[in-house]
Design a protein that fits this description.
The complex is a heterotrimer of chains A (288), B (746) and C (167).
Chain A lengths: L8 E3 L4 H10 L5 E3 L5 H6 L7 E4 L9 E3 L3 E5 L4 H5 L2 H6 L1 H8 L4 H6 L2 H6 L7 H7 L3 E6 L2 E6 L4 E3 L2 E2 L6 E8 L6 E8 L7 E12 L2 E10 L6 E2 L1 H7 L6 H14 L10 H20 L2
Parallel strand pairs in A: 1-3, 2-3
Antiparallel strand pairs in A: 4-5, 5-10, 6-7, 6-10, 8-9, 11-12, 12-13, 13-14
Chain B lengths: L14 H6 L14 E7 L5 E8 L9 E3 L24 E2 L5 E7 L2 H10 E7 L6 H5 L11 E9 L2 H7 L2 E9 L2 E2 L7 E7 L3 E6 L4 H12 L6 E5 L12 H16 L3 E4 L2 H7 L2 E2 L2 E9 L5 E13 L5 H11 L8 E10 L13 H19 L3 H6 L21 H12 L1 H11 L5 E14 L5 H5 L2 E6 L5 E4 L9 H13 L6 E3 L18 H22 L10 H14 L2 E6 L8 E2 L4 E2 L4 E14 L4 E12 L6 H21 L4 E2 L2 E2 L18 E6 L16 H18 L5 E2 L3 H16 L1
Parallel strand pairs in B: 1-13, 8-30, 11-12, 16-17, 20-21, 26-29
Antiparallel strand pairs in B: 1-5, 2-4, 2-6, 3-5, 7-17, 8-15, 9-14, 10-11, 10-13, 15-16, 18-25, 19-20, 19-22, 23-24, 25-26, 27-28
Helix pairs in contact in B: 5-6, 8-9, 9-18, 14-15, 17-18
Chain C lengths: L11 E7 L2 E7 L5 H8 L18 E4 L2 E4 L12 E3 L12 H9 L8 H14 L5 H7 L11 H17 L1
Parallel strand pairs in C: 1-5
Antiparallel strand pairs in C: 1-2, 3-4, 3-5
Helix pairs in contact in C: 2-5
The chains are: A alpha+beta (288), B alpha+beta (746), C alpha+beta (167).
Bound molecules: FE2/S2 (inorganic) cluster (2 copies).
């Protein structure tokens, strides 16, 4: 059942400082509204609880993608289209571009933003597993200043985040210079396009002399929030990828994730798939 | 003579309006002073209505509210029976059943008002499965929960089973499927005591709505007018439900004295309107050592939902198609449609046949394995041929050669070579590929004596400019009615297709050519259009305004002279029962359909054994449908139907909780996108059918029958997994694959 | 929930350019652009199939990019340049994609057609010679229940050929 749009407010402050000032003046009263690809869906379904929003779509300074020698800075309002079309991102951060390509159709990619995807805090979001693999950091801004947090520490529970009501996600920062890692991204969704993920696994590993020197494994849709499988990673560091190691890793992962049954899939299926995808990734590391 | 248009791909008549956005659908229409209507529905599947509370804070005096008490005539949506109320009065029998209607000029306010109405319903135990319904765990519909049961008997099944060398048993199920036309249901109504009731809407069957409204308002037929707007897809979903939404909009208009627009949003449309009947089929098949099927014992059950709607008719088609295009001397089919507390299931393209054909074509692959024959060899030994009889005893008079059609489909798909190659390549790969097929038939037109009872009428009128107007209640909903009727009328009169206009279906102006269902529009109504057009010509010839040898340029002049002298130039044609078609409704024997479409579909799939995901890689649809009137439109029908069949087989899973559909959003009910459909190659074999216009038969439903079993047969070929239910979700397939792997290890 | 007086926003006036003309929309800021364009400018060629960004029937171009107008609140259209299906043909001269859809049977019931055409036209403006695979990707956000997409792909590819022959 639809909501009545007449009872929702959406103001457009004329610049970013005004947005931050409003957020600071009445903390919790206003929330940011970017491309609307999540919030408008909730509105249509009559499930949008909060009523007052600030339109930040036009805050151009939050849309830039810039590169320095050591890091990429992606403005939180960069859309999936911006991300997947960016030459450096395509070269060095393929998993993120893959995630952007596999999010919704073209129209959604033109409006959906990376910051929105993070702030919406859906456990099924497609980009966050890639961000976790890349050791992303977030730059949060408020009228009081800027702070940087590790993205891995950002989501603290189902729809819970390390973000104050007066803060905005301003940028996503990706450290550069991780060449030579073997990477993997696979989203198992409800269909081939425009799908919500049942399980999404992003991973990267560096092998030395046939053993795992370092590794990142991140998953969506298997826990209350997008997660890094740190136990599984730890269990693999220094290991050679023989059949026994892969079996162990599967078991560790199965114990580490907490998938649920919902209308899209089952806990059992999600657990199997997460393990199978991990295995597919590890086998690909072992063979190269 | 002009170049005949039949057989050519004349572009869609209303194409230009559709590509420019000018085509007018019901939501594009506004009337002065119009209100917006909304429906308050039961959240509970079965219960007793104790009260209705209108919450605080809304201007109820400004809102029009309608309950069962406000209905002027009979509180029912009359169709086959009158068991379904328009608004629940005392008992609620399914979730989403309508109880209160609201209207206001502010469409935002109406959403809040809808939330503010509280229904007090005392919950009663409900039935959510075929077994519970059959066991009468609760009696929820008349004496025994059975809407209709049927029985087909041919030969002596028990004796034949007793003697057969092999008896193969199997049970198969299909799930509910949402029609998912992209335009949700909608209606605009005007109604008052003086002028009666007029509705404009998205609908397939103007005269069904007409009949329902006359009973609801207790008004004479001439006081009811139903106009079809451009309709954004139907597929059966706009066959019976439009009567309900028309009734609701009209009641609000009647009470408020204002026009009322009622458009469902997607969530409401999916939750509340009809879906394809879930089914269960049991087969027991007797076969000789050399693969001749000697007995088919079939038990077929449909879940009809809470009210009868069209379930008996769906059951009938499903029953007749349950034994397929095979020659078998001993057949017994027992079938029934039962009541549950789901929202009523209803018409969906294929109308019961996709369910029973799925079971049969899956089962025959099992039979083939038991007998030790290839699936195609088993079919080859059993295909019905001209002169032999179908399960209902109907002698096949068509010159169809199913073997040849199958060979054609195999050639186009490279079936044999692929079957061999894939079997070689599959071991050692996590992606398993497979190829499978299904062979089937689909009766065109109403079953048995249905067309006799309908006695449909179509009319053709010529203007003094020599333009032709075709008047019929058969609706265009994308399948090409406008274009095909134009081609048929044009050729009958030797005119250009562009001289023909098909009049917008409006019960005030068009005769009742019957419902737009059952693949009957082209074959049955098209034939009436052809005869009516010939009738016009006859009038001109008889009165000497035209001579047989005249060219088409003489036509306009002849019309003008005729009209000057006699007035309007019209001819109509009424369906007349064929002396060659005999049907015995009591024993379910005889000529079930005037003609059949015949098909062999081949699917190639790949199954990712890591994820259980199945993808259809390639598809060949070969069929015999009589003369093809418009190749592009006809192929489009097949391709669209195959895509729906892909959804039916693999994606489209209605998730129920306590009788409510909980995945009633397009995000969560998964239909195929452009990335999910395979390349589809369509092949038509054309054997002209004498009683069809220019030799055409029906076509629209055929593709739904063969697609799902072809795909699932291919999955078995790829994986060895015996799948007995659609939709086959990756969850189910992965479980089965895991179980099979464990078995190998153990 | 009853309307809370406190949070009732005022309607806002939004200036934008639609199909080459200046336009003013007056609506609640969170009203869907879809409704505002259909109701206030009578651009009823924009269709609603789902209201949740899934079907693409409401596709329009906003500042050159394809968007689902059901997911755009009116307030965000301020200053935007918008093209709808009504602005695709040049007067009575159809766009190649429109013509090809008619010729090749790319439209059946027609409800997905306006959005499909905008998606295709938008694709061709970014990529003048797409492969069938690229067409499939570009149209994945536009659902069609009638055609099985096959004739839509054919139409788009045929339009490319026509456009190339013309240029
Ligand atoms: S109506 Fe906007 S995407 Fe479906
Ligand atoms: S033509 Fe009907 S939905 Fe595409």
């Amino acid at each position: 059942m639809r909501s009545s749009v007449a009872s929702f407010d959406l103001r457009t402050p004329h610049d970013l400082p005004s947005v931050l000032e409003l957020l600071a003046r009445e903390p919790g009263e206003w929330r940011p509204f970017a491309g609307g690809t999540d919030l408008m869906v909730l509105l249509e379904a009559g499930k949008l609880a909060h009523r007052r929003y600030l339109n930040i779509w036009n805050c151009r300074e939050l849309r830039n993608i810039s590169a320095s020698d050591s890091e990429m800075k992606i403005g939180a309002l960069a859309t999936y289209t911006d991300v997947k079309g960016h030459a450096i991102l395509q070269r060095e951060f393929e998993l993120l571009c893959r995630a952007a390509e596999e999010t919704g159709g073209i129209a959604t990619q033109n409006r959906g933003t990376l910051g929105g995807n993070i702030a919406n805090a859906s456990p099924a979001a497609d980009s966050p597993p890639a961000l976790l693999v890349y050791d992303a950091e977030l730059e949060l801004i408020s009228a009081g200043g800027t702070r940087r947090v590790l993205y891995a520490d950002f989501h603290t529970g189902y729809k819970k985040m390390n973000l104050r009501p007066d803060e905005l996600i301003a940028r996503i920062i990706l450290p550069r210079g991780r060449g030579g890692w073997k990477t993997y991204y696979r989203k198992v969704g409800t269909r081939r396009a425009q799908a919500i993920s049942k399980v999404c696994l992003a991973a990267a590993a560096k092998t030395e002399n046939g053993a795992i020197a370092d590794i990142r494994i991140a998953l969506g849709s298997v826990a209350p929030c997008v997660m890094r499988a740190t136990k599984t990673e730890n269990s693999l560091r220094g290991k050679r990828l023989d059949a026994a190691a892969i079996d162990d890793a599967r078991a560790t992962l199965a114990a580490e994730i907490t998938p649920i049954d919902d209308m899209r899939s089952t806990a059992r299926y999600r657990s199997r798939i997460a393990q199978n995808l991990l295995q597919e990734f590890l086998q690909s590391c072992a063979t190269t | 003579m002009t170049n005949p248009s039949i057989g050519r791909s004349i572009p869609r008549k209303e194409g230009r309006e559709k590509v420019t956005g000018r085509a007018r659908y019901v939501d594009d229409m506004t009337l002065p002073g119009m209100l917006f209507g909304a429906t308050v529905r039961s959240p509970i599947a079965r219960g007793r209505l104790r009260g209705i509370r209108f919450g605080e804070g809304l201007p109820w005096n400004e809102l029009t509210t309608v309950t069962a008490k406000d209905i002027p005539g009979k509180n029912s949506i009359v169709l086959l029976e009158d068991d379904q109320p328009c608004l629940a009065a005392e008992l609620v029998n399914h979730a989403e059943e309508a109880v209160v209607l609201l209207a206001h000029r502010d469409k935002y306010l109406i959403e809040e008002a809808r939330r503010a109405v509280q229904l007090e319903i005392e919950r009663l135990p409900a039935i959510f499965s075929i077994d519970d319904s059959l066991a009468c765990k609760e009696i929820i519909w008349r004496a025994d929960n059975v809407f209709k049961s049927l029985r087909v008997d041919k030969g002596d099944v028990d004796a034949a089973l007793a003697e057969a060398e092999f008896v193969v048993e199997g049970e198969y199920e299909t799930g509910a499927q949402e029609q998912l036309y992209i335009e949700p249901q909608g209606m605009i109504a005007e109604a008052n005591g003086r002028d009666g009731v007029t509705v404009w809407g998205s609908l397939q069957c103007p005269y069904y709505v007409h009949k329902a409204l006359a009973a609801l308002f207790a008004l004479p037929a001439e006081k009811i007018r139903v106009v079809q707007m451009e309709t954004g897809g139907g597929f059966g979903g706009k066959e019976e439900y439009p009567s309900m939404i028309a009734a609701h909009a009209a009641l609000l208009a009647w009470k408020s004295g204002r026009p009322v627009k009622m458009i469902y949003d997607r969530a409401e449309d999916m939750a509340a309107t009809t879906k394809r009947h879930p089914s269960r089929t049991r087969h027991r098949t007797g076969v000789t050592r050399d693969g001749k099927i000697v007995a088919m014992d079939i038990d077929f059950t449909l879940d009809g939902g809470a009210y009868m709607t069209l379930s008996p008719v769906v059951l009938s088609r499903g029953t007749i198609h349950a034994a397929g295009p095979y020659d078998c001397a001993n057949v017994r089919i027992r079938s029934r449609a039962v009541a549950t507390n789901f929202p009523p299931h209803g018409a969906f393209r294929g109308f019961g046949a996709p369910q029973s054909v799925f079971a049969l074509e899956r089962h025959l692959d099992q039979v083939a394995k038991v007998v030790g024959l290839a699936p195609d060899e088993l079919r080859r030994r059993n295909f019905v041929r001209e002169g032999q009889t179908l399960a209902v005893g109907q002698v096949v008079h068509e010159k169809i050669d199913m073997n040849e059609l199958m060979e054609r489909a195999f050639e186009l798909s490279g079936y044999r070579a692929k079957r061999e190659r894939l079997a070689r390549e599959n071991p050692g790969s996590t992606i398993k590929r497979g190829i499978g097929f299904a062979s089937f038939l689909h009766g065109a037109g109403f079953t048995g004596s249905g067309e006799d009872y309908l006695a449909s009428v179509a009319e053709v009128e010529a203007t003094s400019e020599g333009k032709i107007r075709v008047c019929a209640a058969s609706t265009e909903m994308g399948q090409g009615t406008n274009t095909i009727f134009s081609q048929i009328a044009a050729d009958a009169l030797g005119l250009e297709c562009s001289s023909v206009e098909v009049v917008q279906p409006d019960t005030a102006h068009v005769p009742n050519s019957g419902p737009t269902v059952a693949s009957r529009t082209c074959m049955i109504v098209g034939k009436l259009v052809e005869s009516a057009a010939l009738g016009v010509k006859q009038s001109l010839l008889q009165n000497g305004f035209l001579r047989e040898e005249d060219g088409h340029d003489a036509f306009a002049g002849a019309c003008r002279l005729y009209i000057e002298k006699f007035g309007p130039l019209r001819a109509s044609s009424r369906y007349s029962p064929s002396p060659e078609i005999h049907w015995d409704d009591a024993h379910y024997r005889g000529d079930a359909y005037g003609a059949y479409g015949w098909g062999v579909y081949v699917a190639e799939v790949s199954v990712d054994t890591l994820t259980g995901e199945t993808r259809v890689e390639d598809f060949v649809a070969a069929q015999e449908v009589g003369r093809v009137i418009n190749p592009v439109l006809a192929a489009g029908q097949i391709e669209g139907g195959v895509a729906q069949g892909v959804g039916f087989a693999l994606y489209e899973n209605v998730v129920w909780r306590d009788g409510r559909m909980i995945n009633n959003q397009m995000t969560n009910y998964i239909m195929p996108t452009s990335m999910d459909v395979p390349p589809i190659r369509v092949y038509f074999e054309e054997l002209p059918y004498a009683r069809g216009p220019a030799g055409a038969k029906g076509i629209g439903e055929l593709p739904l029958d063969g697609t799902a079993p072809a795909i699932i047969n291919a999955v078995e070929n790829a994986t060895g997994i015996v799948v007995r239910r659609v939709p086959l979700t990756p969850e189910i397939l992965l479980d089965a694959l895991d179980a099979a792997r464990e078995k190998v290890h153990a | 929930m009853p309307r809370a007086k406190r949070s009732m926003p005022e309607k806002v006036s939004v200036q934008c350019r639609v199909n080459g003309h200046d336009a003013t929309l007056l609506d609640f800021p969170m009203a869907r652009l879809l409704d505002a364009l259909r109701e206030q400018l009578s651009l009823t060629g924009i269709k609603e199939g789902c209201g949740e960004g899934e079907c693409g029937a409401c596709s329009i171009e906003m500042d050159g990019r394809l968007v689902n107008s059901c997911l755009v609140p009116v307030a965000q259209a301020e200053g935007a340049t918008i093209r709808t299906i009504e602005g695709v043909a040049d007067g009575e001269q159809l766009h190649e994609v429109q013509q090809a859809i008619i010729t090749h049977g790319g439209a059946q019931c027609g409800i997905c057609t306006p959005g499909m055409i905008l998606a295709a036209v938008n694709l061709l403006e970014h990529n003048g010679r797409p492969t069938e695979a690229e067409v499939r990707v570009a149209l994945a956000g536009n659902l069609c229940r009638c055609t099985g997409y096959t004739k839509i792909f054919e139409s788009v590819l045929a339009a490319v050929t026509v456009a190339e022959a013309r240029d």
